[in-house]
Amino acid sequence: MPTKIKPTEHAIEYGSRKIVYNLFREKRNRVRIVVSPELNVDVFAPEMASEFRVHDIVRKKAPWIAKSIDKLENYHPLPAPKQYVSGETLVYLGRQYRLKVENGKDEPAKLRGRFLHVEVKNKTDIRKVKRKVENWYRKRARDILSRYMDKCFAIASRHGLPEPFFTIRKMRRRWGSCSPADRITLNIKLVQLPVQCIEYVIMHELCHLRHPNHSRYFYSFLTRCLPDWRKRKEILDNVMLY
Hints:
The protein is of the alpha/beta class. The chain has three domains: about 10-75, no CATH class; about 90-135, no CATH class; about 140-235, Zincin-like. About 35% of the residues lie in helices and about 25% in strands. The protein is built from six helices and eleven strands. The protein has helices at about 50-60, 60-75, 125-155, 195-205, 215-225, 230-235; strands spanning about 10-15, 15-25, 30-35, 40-45, 90, 95-105, 110, 115-120, 165-170, 175-180, 185. Helix 3 packs across helix 4 (about 195-205) and helix 4 packs across helix 6 (about 230-235). The chain is globular, with a radius of gyration of 21 Å. The model has no long low-confidence stretch (mean pLDDT about 85).
C-alpha cells in the first residue's frame, strides 16, 4: 500500500486572481494537474522535478485551470437570497419545509410537521428571524453530522484510519475538506442534503486521511469503504441548495 503523501501548498498569479494548488510528489514521469469538483487544484509531479519547473508548468496551464474552476463554480445557478418570511422553502435532510414566522415569545425555532416555526416579538425583524433559522440549522448540523461521522468512521476505522478531529462551519465552495494535519471540516449546509449524500461527503473526507489527493489509490480506497459512492455522488452533483 502506498505511503501517505503530504502535499505542499503553492500559488501562482493569473491576471487579477490567485490560484492556489497542492503539490504532490510521486513516482511518475510527467506533471499532472487535476481540478476536482471541490475546486481543489492538485498537481502531481515527479519526485525529482524542481519546484521552479513545476511552478512554470502550472503557470502555463493557468488559463485552463481558471476556466475549469469557473465552469465548476457555475455548474449550478445560485439561489435567490432568502427573505426569511413566511412561506419560504427550507431544506432539511433532502426534504422541503416551509418557514412560518409569527409574532410571539422570543423562543428558539422548532420543526413541527412540514413547517419550521419561528416566533419573535416582531416578525418584520428579518435579522432576528434569520439568526433563529441559522441557529436551528447549526444545532441540527452538530447533532446530525456528529452521528454520521461516528457511523462512517466505524467503517473507515476497520481499514486502519486514525480518528480525526472534525469541525463544522460555513463553507462557500466545498462540502468538506481534510487538512494535512488530519483535521476534517464539514460544511454546515450538509444538513440540508439527503442522508446518502452526507455519508458520501464524510467518507470522502475520511479517505483523504490516507490519500490526500484524487489519485486512483484514493478512489480505490473510497470504493472499499463505500462501494456505492458513485451513485451517491451523482445525487450530490444534482443538488441545488436553497
